[in-house]
TrEMBL record:
Record's protein name: tRNA N6-adenosine threonylcarbamoyltransferase
Protein's cellular compartments: Cytoplasm
Swiss-Prot/TrEMBL cofactor(s): Fe(2+)
Gcp-like domain boundaries: 28-318
Presence of the UniProt keyword Zinc-finger in the record: no
GO molecular function annotation: iron ion binding; tRNA N(6)-L-threonylcarbamoyladenine synthase activity
Gene: tsaD
Amino acid sequence: MRVLGIETSCDETAAAVVERDEAGHGRILSNVVLSQIAEHEPYGGVVPEIAARAHVEALDRLVARALEEADTPLERIDAVAATAGPGLIGGLIVGLMTAKALALAAGKPFHAINHLEGHALTARLTDNLPFPYLLLLVSGGHTQMILVRGLGQYERLGTTIDDALGEAFDKTAKLLGLPYPGGPAVEKAALSGDPTRFALPRPLKGEARLDFSFSGLKTAVRQAAAELVPLGDQDVADICASFQAAVADTLTDRVSRSLARFRESFPDVAEPTLVVAGGVAANRMLRIGLETLCAKHGFRFLAPPHILCTDNAAMIAWAGAEHAAFKQGDPLDIAPRSRWPLDQAALPLIGAGRRG
Ligand code: ATP
Ligand code: MG
Ligand code: FE
């Protein structure tokens, strides 16, 4: 079946067509993403009203392009899926209304998708990945360790008690005068930096619970930067490298505990897998750190390609396709939700027929 997906929860306007075959394998037929970085750059972050307007202006063209590139007219689409939350409410309304209208016009089912579920299931689109698996979701708004037991069954093992990791990257970049969005800028600057120059904190390290905390790290970066004013390029590079080293160390600590927890929960899983998803998963250094850790603990490591880590509609279309295999579609009066925890994204209709 072919699903048209729409994503407008933040500052990317995106449309995509994805195919899912009988065996559950996925294929991306088109994946169009229009980033609003230029619109928001002057403000150093996303301005909700600007985002909503930009989605309105771009979305119909993007949908047309996604259908065209997929060589699939609307009549040949089997379902339409859109992000219904969590995210900025103005953007969500734009995407949701468009998807409902298209579904209604084409007489096809509509699926309301949780954006985080899109991130969580992406690795099943790109790889042959059965349930259950362990997921580290690291994005602009979320930092969570999740046990993905099955479709619609997401158990949160840990979450951040303050800032999200992507947010910590963005705030660090802003403090250092680096461009928005901060993640890629910090990663680039860190390449020529000394990761040992600053001893930044590793919050919650060594604790048994699987939560994260990043606000202390951000404060430490602010203090280090304040002592060095005016900051030279090498100072910035060294702070970025030290920041990334602290993040990598923290993640390693939390994740290695989670791997152990997974083994306890599923001692019989032959090939235990850690998936990393969300925008921060695009970070090369963090990927390498996680990959090394997985190799050490006998886990398979999966990280989707960069373009599928940051926001996109292929992941929404794919989640729609996974839902479509189990239910008819969602009612057209479903409302957008600015807050929508992943563990509340359960599919009530899923029964014994769940495929691995
Ligand atoms: P959420 O998915 O939680 O709703 P979001 O959709 O805004 O939030 P994503 O688009 O998944 O988040 O990710 C964006 C975040 O990823 C930003 O904070 C950005 O700085 C970060 N990011 C992107 N590339 C990198 C990178 N190479 N290294 C570190 N962080 C990165
Ligand atoms: Mg974004
Ligand atoms: Fe996202």
